[in-house]
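User: Please predict the structure of the protein below. I'd like the answer in structure-token form so I can feed it into my own downstream comparison script.

Assistant: Understood. Taking the following sequence of 122 residues as input:
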Amino acid sequence: MSGAERGAKINEIADAIEDARDAKADAKKGADVTVKVAPKRKPRRSTFGDSLPELAFLWIAMSIILKITYKGRLQAEVKAAQATETAEAESLKRQGWRRAWRRCRRRWSRTSCSTRWPRSTT
């Protein structure tokens, strides 16, 4: 690159900088600020009926949860009642065998008591 070309490029750059400064100064002086103002809206008044769909959804959701928990509780109570009944039956069955064995031991003969042994229901 020769010196003349280099000087021409430097002058172009200097002119561009000067033009940019002038444009900046013009923008500051004659800058009209435009502000967009939206029309004023009335605040929305809420009425009692506006929240009814949300309330209905919550009511339905809570009733479903309540039904599920109540059903589980009932099933647990039924299982507990069955377990209690089974335990009582087993206890009574054991007591019946004990009574029969005591009677046979008193008589010293097991064959004479064979008709008196409680019958198994299973």
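That's the full token string. The CA atoms of residues 36 and 42 lie 18 Å apart.
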